Amino acid sequence: ILDQWFESEPLKATLATDAVIGAMVSPHTPGSGYVLLHHVMGELEGRKGAWGYVAGGMGALSQAIARAATAQGAHIFTEKVVCQVLLGRNGQVQGVALQDGTEVRTKLVLSNASPQITFLELTPQEQLPKDFVQRIRQVDTCSPVTKINVAVDRLPSFLAAPNTCDGQPLPHHQCSIHLNCESTHLLHQAFTEATHGHPSSRPMIELCIPSALDPGLAPQGCHVVSLFTQYTPSVLVGGQPWDEQARNAYADTVFDCIEAYAPGFKASVIGRDILTPPDLERIFGLPSGNIFHGGMSLDQLYFARPAPSYSGYRSPVPGLYLCGSGAHPGGGVMGAAGRNAAQVALEDFRDL
């Protein structure tokens, strides 16, 4: 698709990063074009295909939704671990059980956890069709993503566009900066290394500086840098663990690459947080670290997400709905899965 429209290899490769983001695929992998489409569909404030930063950080989005809900009478409880979905003798949802022993009784349960957690860990297996369980077990969740959050004491100054004397953010600081993508061959090479169990020696890096637009995220003069990097395998060659040494070795590789584009970057770093695929799974419940709760490949989209015949947010358990990234139409912080699931649940609730 990119070859049909563009001639510039750096431009094609930069656009191709959105075709592989969050996926263990190469730009040459058939079907990767859909992932590119998924990232440019929709609009922001009337601008088609545009993305934006959330003022106050991504957590502010959850807080805004929470305020809207509580204003309508919702009660929100956090840090309450759900350990089981409770079912009646007829298989109908009766509520959820919390880890502290509390039971919350309800006729409807909406889960934005992954399909794997929702149906393989929280729901009694005997209440689910065997073919459905098998399908959920087979969902491809392979993820190449390592996220690195960085605190710096000054803006990166790139050789291609040096900073001004006053140190104020320039237009490119307020955008998404893509590194190590001068050609699709480089991306394919990085992908190939990861398929053999090795972190990419020249990883794909998407660098964002949200504090360039939202100064409240960092002290004056300082900034936060978000690094979305690929490719890192979930399991290293030989079954080696992603221990502290492996994490730091990969982060050092990433920082060396950035240093080549922006000399002085490494000296500006005052803190970093490294989240490999196992970390993303452990901390955020992302299966294999997959940001979409499952690959956005053509065999796992539309009517097949999360499983054939169950793309309409209802599950095999009456009263249990899936509303997260593992549901149609997938991830991307678009809110479509949640909105659609809520409408289906409300429709059913009127008949209860």
Automatic annotation (TrEMBL):
<comment type="function">
    <text>Probable oxidoreductase that may play a role as regulator of mitochondrial function.</text>
</comment>
<keyword id="KW-0285">Flavoprotein</keyword>
<keyword id="KW-0274">FAD</keyword>
<dbReference type="Pfam" id="PF01593">
    <property type="entry name" value="Amino_oxidase"/>
</dbReference>
<feature type="domain" description="Amine oxidase">
    <location>
        <begin position="40"/>
        <end position="160"/>
    </location>
</feature>
<comment type="subunit">
    <text>Interacts with COX5B; this interaction may contribute to localize PYROXD2 to the inner face of the inner mitochondrial membrane.</text>
</comment>
<comment type="similarity">
    <text>Belongs to the carotenoid/retinoid oxidoreductase family.</text>
</comment>
<dbReference type="GO" id="GO:0005759">
    <property type="term" value="C:mitochondrial matrix"/>
</dbReference>
<dbReference type="InterPro" id="IPR036188">
    <property type="entry name" value="FAD/NAD-bd_sf"/>
</dbReference>
<dbReference type="InterPro" id="IPR002937">
    <property type="entry name" value="Amino_oxidase"/>
</dbReference>
<dbReference type="GO" id="GO:0016491">
    <property type="term" value="F:oxidoreductase activity"/>
</dbReference>
<protein>
    <recommendedName>
        <fullName>Pyridine nucleotide-disulfide oxidoreductase domain-containing protein 2</fullName>
    </recommendedName>
</protein>
